């Protein structure tokens, strides 16, 4: 092509394209990842050259990942037509859609995911986590991290919350537990648990700016508890009789608490099936994941 | 206090605090929302004055919401110590944690939520959505929007996907359907459905940069279909015999497809319970939401 063969045209040196560092994505677009510092003027020139090439190549979406250290490039990028897509503490992701056709850029993450963990031992006692406000016991709850399995988050939260000194109360006389009248000692004790089922889950909205919230109620059983008890020669009083936990005023005041306790009651009678986990490979891309479904193992036994 | 009574001290006019527009949040912090344009110099001065006041008032987290039009303030904000928190196309949210104590700033949304919709009619036929690749039929799937109920997203996706001309195939002779050998007509037809249950759900990771993915498999039944059929005097061939859909090669190749079909088989025999929806008020803030739990209505009937 004559244009490309002529470095000089009209007496001006033909432009050598200076493109930004990028990789192709799987959807006909490119991802620009800025690694080395760049002044805004060089950036804008390289960006415009890059766009010339990307348009010729029929590229669609252009993702621009700007680490916090490249904050000087945010304003010029927006002025060149980029829009924000998402951000994490250390970077801002911007995006530009080249084609005339409607954008197929995927939406940003929309939900925060949390777990609440009910730990029931074989004595039909329920492990309660931290004391919340005055005299109200709550199950351990916490946020599921990016990349974390729901069941793993439940196990972690139980371990973390029971590992906090102030949330552990010990009943040294081994009598029936009434947490409100106990004189308790503090000790650092972590409970290991095994995930059994997701009993139910709850979706709410605007929990966090415009973001929605999914709260998974998980049922676990202790695995390390007995060993720890022997070592310490004590009975841990964070085990609360199920009936006592159900009779807390907050349980009656709140729909979700009431439902969780009702489900737990049914579960103890083997008349409720939640969703168990099963490792699988997924639809589209053969990724590993976990499917949560009703395995109905308990239901196979006669309902007592 | 003498300092405040003396506007002039050492011959210099005492500084009048120029704070940025802010509102208190519910957690001891403030939210700054920039509405009018501001040059960077004025912004930095006002920000520093604001911080003096916020520190005196014992404020904790400072949220700074910068609309796209205020992109000029991103770099100065970061240089003053702000970090990115999250971003949407039209704004960037930054955050600054004032206290010495560990930050309790909530994590950003971590999950994208999607639905897949299985629509079964009373003839044990399954509605399949769009043709994906060559000869493979998939159930309608789509992303749940911020603020959208999971069950509503499933209903919407069925309506949207069946409303697309190319995804509707009609069997005019009303015989047993084999979608691969049909000569079909196109017609615009939207299917209204009613949500029955979430049959199962799947969690995967890194589906979208570092974000995780939750995919809910929903069971629905048609509500408007029969009426539409009468109006049009035709049998819609997007109804696929359940056995035919189960025998597609992709169903055998993929764990998740296999499991969904197995669950649907059990469901048709009334030997499977998914999670139904129930409106509730939530734990902490009496927000309205939906709890998905095993209502076991079908299980109350004898298993056929």
UniProtKB/TrEMBL annotation, chains A, B:
Keywords: Hydrolase, Magnesium, Metal-binding. One of its GO terms (molecular function) is metal ion binding. Signal peptide: none annotated. Its EC number is 3.6.1.13, 3.6.1.22. Its cofactor is Mg(2+). It catalyses: NADH + H2O = reduced beta-nicotinamide D-ribonucleotide + AMP + 2 H(+); ADP-D-ribose + H2O = D-ribose 5-phosphate + AMP + 2 H(+); NAD(+) + H2O = beta-nicotinamide D-ribonucleotide + AMP + 2 H(+). Residues 97-262 form the Nudix hydrolase domain. Mediates the hydrolysis of some nucleoside diphosphate derivatives, possibly using both NADH and ADP-ribose as substrates. Belongs to the Nudix hydrolase family. This is Nudix hydrolase.
